[in-house]
Write a structure and sequence with these properties.
This protein folds into 2 domains: 16-235, Aminopeptidase (3-Layer(aba) Sandwich); 248-315, OB fold (Dihydrolipoamide Acetyltransferase, E2P), CATH 2.40.50. It has an 11-stranded mixed beta sheet, sandwiched between helices. The two termini are 35 Å apart. By secondary structure, the chain is α/β, with parallel strands linked by helices. Strand 5, helix 5 and strand 6 form a beta-alpha-beta unit. Helix content is 22%, strand content 27%.
């Protein structure tokens, strides 16, 4: 399915000023307060073509915000892929060798495999290994409403509700192709305190996506308790829109190179009847498993072993 052209409304920030970092890791900046508190980590550019997070972190760094307690770390992740971005083929900058959001498994990180994304993940791993709260900022191929991917553990859902934005929360187990950063073991374990959330802020290059990324970032920091009171106050007011939750029950992974949807789904469509055919994977028919099935983040780039769509239902 060809990608629909869409104008690039976001100006890519020049990150060269951040290269040195101040943490011993390039493009990673940390600021510690004298008072004890959580280590809050915010990551952007896990995918190099998802610019909104880079803009949000650039704004925050320029504001010279410092935590009142604990520690704040801001990390530009796959900068090498980001630097390959061009407006003619913008999606190609997602990664260089492999998806950096599928390598967050200890066996992979500590194993013999090598790629530019893995080398970068290994470089930033010491920061991730000390995070108490982590927000990973992303955007989407489709012009779909923003959503927060929380994982399945109640601790993540509870904190996402404290953040208060975006209005849609999605509980899911991740991808068969590999572990996302938010699924890294220390976050995924429901019996341990560390929490990670992944926000999908809207279409990759829409202007509004930057504003969603910025608001979510500030609300996350306010909910963490590390901000000075006067900085936190505006972001502790609940948004006007009440949050809803979708529970993902089925993850549809392409098993062939001939996967196709029967309609041009952009995400969050509600299919009224169970058994409705939504796509085909080679000779296999893909049907909805129950009434009022929600399609979550259908892809337009089909590949064997990759998630094609997630199926879920709204929870009360």
């Amino acid at each position: 399915m060809p990608l629909s052209p869409r104008p690039i409304e976001i100006e890519s920030p020049d990150l060269s000023r951040y290269r040195a970092g101040n943490s011993g890791i390039e493009y990673v900046w940390s600021f510690a307060a004298a008072a004890p508190g959580p280590h809050v980590v915010v990551t952007a550019l896990t995918h190099g073509n998802e610019i909104c997070g880079a803009v949000a972190l650039d704004r925050l760094l320029k504001s010279e915000l410092r935590p009142a307690k604990g520690k704040l770390t801001l990390a530009f992740m796959n900068v090498a892929a980001y630097q390959s971005f061009n407006a003619v083929e913008p999606s190609a900058a997602r990664y260089l060798d492999e998806d950096m959001n599928r390598v967050w498994d200890r066996k992979v990180l500590e194993g013999p495999r090598s790629s530019r994304e893995l080398r970068r993940a290994r470089a930033v791993k010491p920061v991730i290994d000390t995070a108490d709260l982590l927000l990973d900022i992303h955007s989407m191929t489709h012009a779909s409403m923003p959503l927060m991917l929380t994982g399945m553990a109640p601790k993540h859902l509870d904190f996402a509700r404290r953040v208060g934005s975006p209005a849609l929360l999605v509980r899911d187990e991740g991808h068969a192709a590999g572990s996302r950063l938010r699924d890294y073991a220390r976050f995924a374990d429901p019996g341990t305190p560390p929490i990670a959330l992944l926000v999908e802020c809207g279409h990759h290059w829409a202007r509004d996506t930057v504003e969603v990324a910025t608001e979510t970032l500030w609300r996350f920091l306010a909910a963490s308790g590390i901000l000075p009171d006067q900085e936190a106050a505006p972001w502790l007011i609940p948004p006007s829109q009440r949050q809803k939750t979708v529970l993902v029950t089925h993850r549809i992974t392409a098993t062939s190179e001939d996967f196709r949807f029967l309609n041009d789904y952009s995400g969050l469509e509600i299919i009224p009847r169970a058994g409705t055919v939504i796509g085909r994977d080679g000779a296999t028919t893909i049907r909805t498993p129950y009434d009022n099935c929600v399609l979550v983040m259908p892809t337009r780039r089909f590949a064997r072993g990759q998630t094609a769509v997630r199926l879920g239902r709204f929870e009360e």
